[in-house]
């Protein structure tokens, strides 16, 4: 146990440099979307404790019309030193000159899963045919307003040939975790990225949808051009992407980025 903590301390010092004196500690403003939030909520405090910095965190989707969406927060001029979000949404902010291109860091890959209410019968989603039947038999289906939900609505239902059959029973759920609606009994079948399903109490994680139907979402992070604490932000991103952080990333339902 002692060796493990010593390795963590060495890792943090390597990634962040010497611990900052408290008088010089920075409050790093972070905006993060749901998919990486569970991992960030574990790793972020460890980084803050080791460096003496503090983290101020705002949650919001990577895209969409909700006021809490990260692009909309930035457009309003809300302070941000780090943004953690879906990779292609981050790329759009880089194109717009709102995030520094040289700051982009790959964090994790996320796959879509299924949840039902605790105590409900567990459906079969083990094959494409079984998953299709489960969707057709569900009284109601919920999916997110972020990357996974856009894929489900615009592509997956069409690929399965059930777009017309589920119309009226399938709905996009903005901003809040889909599994929270499942836990409350408002939606029978919830589809969202695994890392967003797992933390919700009252919902049972069934498993990932069949790989042939998957849409893998890359989560990445960057430093906005208006960041006030650029060096601290870069140090935080190095830590989140470090090999030593990957066990935590994987425990939250994400897949580590494969080395290419």
Helix content: 40-55%
Query: Rough shape?
Result: elongated
Q: CATH superfamily of the largest domain, called what? A: Periplasmic binding protein-like II
SS summary, helix count? 11
Low-confidence stretches: 17-23
- Order of strands across the main sheet: 2-1-3-10-4
Indicate the radius of gyration in whole angstroms: 19 Å
- Tell me the series of helices and strands, N- to C-terminal: HEHEHEHEEHEHHEHEHEEHH
Main pleated-sheet profile: 5 strands, mixed
The pLDDT mean sits at 91
Q: Regarding quaternary structure, how should these chains be classified?
A: single chain
Number of strands: 10
Which structural class do the helices and strands define? alpha/beta
Within the CATH hierarchy, at the fold level, what is the topology of the largest domain?
Answer: D-Maltodextrin-Binding Protein, domain 2
CATH architecture of the largest domain: 3-Layer(aba) Sandwich
Protein name: ABC transporter substrate-binding protein
Pfam families: SBP_bac_11 (PF13531)
Keywords: Signal
Signal peptide: 1-25
């Amino acid at each position: 146990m002692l060796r493990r903590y010593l390795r963590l301390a060495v890792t943090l010092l390597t990634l962040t440099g010497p611990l900052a004196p408290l008088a010089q500690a920075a409050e790093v403003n972070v905006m993060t979307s749901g998919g990486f939030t569970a991992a960030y909520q574990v790793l972020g405090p460890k980084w803050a404790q080791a460096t003496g910095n503090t983290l101020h965190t705002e949650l919001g989707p990577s895209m969409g019309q909700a006021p809490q969406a990260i692009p909309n927060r930035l457009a309003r001029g809300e302070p941000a030193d780090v943004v953690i979000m879906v990779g292609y949404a981050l790329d759009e902010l880089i194109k717009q000159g709102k995030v520094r291109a040289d700051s982009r860091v790959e964090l994790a890959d996320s796959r879509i899963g299924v949840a039902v209410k605790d105590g409900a019968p567990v459906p079969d989603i083990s094959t494409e045919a079984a998953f299709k039947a489960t969707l057709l038999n569900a009284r109601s289906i919920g999916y997110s307003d972020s990357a996974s939900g856009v894929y489900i609505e615009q592509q997956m239902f069409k690929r399965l040939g059930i777009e017309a059959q589920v119309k009226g029973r399938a709905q996009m759920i903005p901003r809040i975790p889909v599994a929270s609606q499942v836990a409350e009994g408002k939606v029978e079948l919830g589809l969202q990225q695994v890392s967003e399903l797992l933390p919700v109490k009252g919902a049972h994680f069934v498993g990932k949808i069949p790989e042939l139907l998957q849409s893998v979402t890359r989560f990445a992070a960057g430093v906005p051009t208006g960041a006030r604490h650029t060096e601290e932000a870069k140090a935080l991103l190095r830590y989140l992407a470090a090999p030593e952080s990957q066990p935590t990333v994987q425990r939250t339902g994400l897949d580590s980025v494969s080395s290419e």
